[in-house]
């Protein structure tokens, strides 16, 4: 059976690479993945999957950091112009860009695989040594790029979708292929996790190309050490006034923000474990001779555990409020993204390792490593584990051409094939029909 899968996947090489290149060419931001999700839905429908889409799998209460109506409308029109299926897009209007393919294949375990599908706000390199540019499949959408590898994740997901339909008679169970919007900024997974999609799911498995697995042929079967994180926007509102005639009549929002920045970086380290803080953006003031009436900041906190991140977030909020008080301004604090920590189940990690051992392309098989960054799939992992299920997160090795989130980011496309084999064979391992 495994030989059958290997052969099938090898024959799909051009198709899988073709998917990746097409998605790479048309990257979309968080909650605007209309074209991407509609094309995915079409492939799933064509392969006989039952589809759940948009509000069916999104709990609106937990959607975070939704773009403005203008941006949503603009992205929607662009998607249609770039070949999206309009009938499917209609079901996602307003930024409900999640799609799930469900295959009900008799009594057996319920297994979910999760793939993310959004791009990063970065301009893609136009250097001839950058293969997507050289081979004419670099981003057509200015200022957005698949610079994290999510285009590869989608292609892997679609490859798996096709393979498992062809091995239907060899396993029993329910498969849910979850294509999640808005992973960048960790604002998408929770809304799906808080819908009823994961009820009764026994296994949730996800993964990422690269991160800590930097060589083709390498695989890390389980991941721990996801940093819990909060993405916070803070807006200080003060009062503008003449900087020469009446500076005392102003309420200086820039000063509040500057005070906050210096003190945010001064939050004490925590003896319980690793923490992070970053103020990544600060815009303030309107002109040289005006007391600044407004300041806006983008901040993120992280922690090795959910509790450590809460420590950072609470401390940061206190500093923001005190900084407002100090210069008599008002601060509006908004959480626009959040993720918790998670860990992979040893039993499932061992199973993944067994499967990887059977795939000849995998020559460096590592059991576990820590992620060292944040991933909102942790909400889904925690949800399934809380219901008695198992979770694991795999890092798929690839010779990366540059760091994630950089304009030259690229990976070795052949490595997607190993991932398709791994997921497909893992499903078979978990849900094999013993009667066949
Ligand atoms: Zn990323
Ligand atoms: Zn990513």
UniProtKB/TrEMBL annotation:
Residues 233-307 form the Peptidase M20 dimerisation domain. InterPro entries: AbgA (IPR033845), Amidohydrolase (IPR017439), Bact_exopeptidase_dim_dom (IPR036264), Peptidase_M20 (IPR002933), Peptidase_M20/M20A_hydrolases (IPR052030), Peptidase_M20_dimer (IPR011650). NCBIfam families: amidohydrolases. This is M20 family metallo-hydrolase. It comes from Clostridium sardiniense. The lineage of its organism: Bacteria, Bacillati, Bacillota, Clostridia, Eubacteriales.
């Amino acid at each position: 059976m495994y030989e059958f899968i290997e052969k099938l996947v090898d024959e799909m090489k051009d198709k899988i690479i073709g998917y990746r290149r097409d998605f790479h060419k048309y990257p979309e931001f968080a909650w605007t993945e209309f074209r991407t999700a509609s094309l995915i839905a079409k492939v799933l429908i064509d392969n006989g999957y039952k589809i759940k889409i948009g509000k069916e799998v999104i709990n609106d209460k937990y959607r975070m950091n939704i773009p403005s109506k203008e941006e949503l409308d603009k992205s929607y029109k662009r998607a249609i112009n770039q070949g999206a299926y309009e009938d499917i897009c209609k079901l996602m209007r307003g930024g409900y860009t999640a799609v799930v393919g469900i295959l009900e294949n008799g009594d057996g375990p319920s297994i979910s695989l999760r793939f993310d599908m959004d791009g990063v706000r970065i301009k893609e390199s136009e250097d001839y040594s950058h293969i997507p540019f050289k081979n004419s499949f670099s981003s057509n959408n200015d200022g957005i790029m698949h610079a994290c590898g999510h285009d590869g994740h989608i292609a892997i997901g679609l490859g798996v979708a096709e393979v498992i339909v062809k091995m239907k008679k060899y396993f029993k169970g329910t498969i849910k292929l979850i294509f999640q919007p808005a992973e960048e900024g960790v604002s998408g997974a929770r809304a799906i996790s808080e819908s009823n999609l994961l009820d009764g799911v026994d296994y949730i498995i996800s993964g990422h190309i690269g991160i800590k697995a930097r060589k083709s042929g390498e695989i890390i079967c389980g991941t721990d050490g996801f940093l819990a994180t909060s993405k916070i926007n803070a807006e200080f509102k003060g009062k503008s006034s003449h900087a020469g005639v009446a500076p005392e009549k102003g309420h200086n929002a820039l000063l509040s923000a500057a005070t906050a920045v210096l003190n945010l970086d001064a939050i004490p380290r925590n003896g319980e474990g690793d923490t992070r803080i970053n103020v990544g953006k600060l815009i303030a003031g309107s002109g040289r001779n005006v007391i600044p009436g407004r300041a806006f900041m983008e901040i993120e906190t992280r922690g090795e555990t959910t509790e450590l991140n809460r420590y950072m977030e609470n401390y940061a909020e206190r500093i923001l409020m005190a900084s407002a008080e100090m210069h008599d301004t008002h601060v509006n604090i908004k959480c626009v993204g959040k993720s918790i920590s998670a860990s992979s189940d040893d039993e499932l990690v061992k199973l993944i390792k067994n499967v990887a051992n059977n795939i000849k392309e995998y020559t460096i098989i590592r059991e576990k490593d820590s992620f060292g960054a944040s991933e909102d799939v942790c909400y889904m992992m925690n949800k399934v584990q809380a219901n008695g299920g198992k979770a694991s997160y795999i890092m798929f090795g690839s010779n990366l051409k540059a760091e994630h989130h950089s304009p030259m980011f690229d990976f070795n496309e052949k490595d997607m094939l190993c991932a398709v084999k791994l997921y497909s064979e893992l499903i078979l391992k978990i849900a094999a029909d013993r009667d066949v």
